[in-house]
Amino acid sequence: MTVQGTCHEDFAEVRAEFEANFAHRGEEGAGVHVTVDGETVVDLWGGDAGGRPWREDTLTHVWSCTKGATALCAHVLASRGDLDLDAPVTRYWPEFGGATTLVRDLLAHRAGLAALREPAAPGLLRDWAATTAALAAQEPFWEPGTRHGYHALTFGHLVGEVVRRVSGLGLAEFFEKEVSGPLALDFWLRLPEDLEPLVAPTLPPPPGSPVSSLYRRAVAEPGSVQALLLTNDGGYAASSNTREARAAEYGSVGGMANARGLAQMYRPLALGGGYNGVRLVDEAQVASMSAVESAGFDEVLLVPTRFSAGFMKSAGNGHLPPADRGVVLAEDAFGHSGMGGSLGFASPAARMSFGYVMTRMGPGVGVNERGQSLVDAVYRALGHRLAPGGPWFR
């Protein structure tokens, strides 16, 4: 297997780790992309893309990395003054039942709507109006704002509906008009049919892979929020590798991208909010995107997690079993991982953005050793750029 693409000599260790992923860590098809000061320093890909070679323009399902795109849409509106994150959701979405729930609670996984309570009919999540109506009427699993728990499948509909109410555009349309179009990203929240030939399907983790606390609770307690999350999805997980799913709008988990698309979405955020004449947000909004909002025990994942307003923060949990560990980043960094190990983030202190995607999923609720090895190598190469007193360390 030959790795293709380009890699600046200062980041040779990233290429070495990427090659080691294929040789020793079970990688089958993947890409990694890194920018520093707005310039591409790593753009590598290789392996199998569903029976054909992975190419420069290959796309794949990035699962919860999609949440980063959805959150960014909300922050674009907030930066313009069109959306107040500290306002009640009902200001923008009057039908929403949680009168005390703030927009910020939706972004920080504090809304208590982490799964659908009522049985989801087949294909429900493809019906935006029906899903948002169900969530608006649902009793929360906990008092909004008092605790946090990962809203794995509902985050996109909750935040995306606020984006729709404020902007007048559907989430995918807003993202294309305001983010992916101006930046020319390889990233879609609703994949055009003519791009189907570029898709590499995602593959499940190898048999015998470690199982997370979430999955163990779901099996042990069929009525738990964890069980509802995994089983009451209207058949989404089972159909995720189909054209029907890729054509729909799933603001939590439906994004299709490559490593370049992920890294270049975060590139403006690593540079104060703008790049090459495209300003997404102002510098104050970038600081808000990085600031921790929720931290501690996660009511859904059942391990400690940390979130800013819409983005994952470093939560190494290195003492936990591999399937329960999060991603380790520098403290300023913010972004999102996707089920199986994909990852995109910005690290403003280093003026760096990162993207990694793959076909063969790994275990865990964050990235696994393949993605973390690449993150570690990038930070080691950038050690001299980090703020004094805040060096990168594991």
From TrEMBL:
Residues 19-372 form the Beta-lactamase-related domain. Coiled coil: none annotated. Pfam families: Beta-lactamase (PF00144). This is CubicO group peptidase (Beta-lactamase class C family).
